[in-house]
Amino acid sequence: MTLEQQIINLIGLATRARKIVTGEELVVREVRRQQAKLVILANDASANTAKKVTDKCASFNVDLGVFGNRYDLGHATGKEARVVLAIMDYGFAKKLASLINEYNRG
């Protein structure tokens, strides 16, 4: 199984466990409340969205990973296109962060 497929499967598992929040405003709210453990941003996010999410994550010290495009993230969550996801569970966040870092290095 490829690294990309592992990431998509793990996002799907987290979605079924109801440990994911999607949508820019909801993700930013969870980052502000310091409930988000990891934020995943699509490669093709708009410049405004990318800046807003990146700045919020930096100021509230939340990990940020960049992976796939909006359709990859949407497919992984079983929904339409999604630009940004917040992982709410520490276990999922830790594993996804390591996989995304490895994916971006390779």
Lay out the secondary structure.
Blueprint: H1 3-16, E1 20-22, H2 24-32, E2 38-41, H3 47-59, E3 63-66, H4 70-77, E4 84-87, H5 90-105
Parallel strand pairs: 2-3
Antiparallel strand pairs: 1-4, 2-4
In short:
57% of the residues lie in helices and 14% in strands.
Write a structural description.
The protein has 106 residues and is of the alpha+beta class. The chain has one domain (3-105): Ribosomal protein L30/S12 (60s Ribosomal Protein L30, Chain: A, 2-Layer Sandwich), CATH 3.30.1330.30. It has 5 helices and 4 strands, in the order αβαβαβαβα. The chain has helices at 3-16, 24-32, 47-59, 70-77, 90-105, and strands at residues 20-22, 38-41, 63-66, 84-87. It has a 4-stranded mixed beta sheet, sandwiched between helices. The radius of gyration is 12 Å and the shape is globular. The model has no long low-confidence stretch (mean pLDDT 95).
Distance between the first and last residues' Cα: 15 Å
Can you tell me the number of structural domains? 1
Shape assignment: globular
Q: Are there runs of 5+ residues with pLDDT below 50, and where?
A: none
In CATH, the architecture is 2-Layer Sandwich
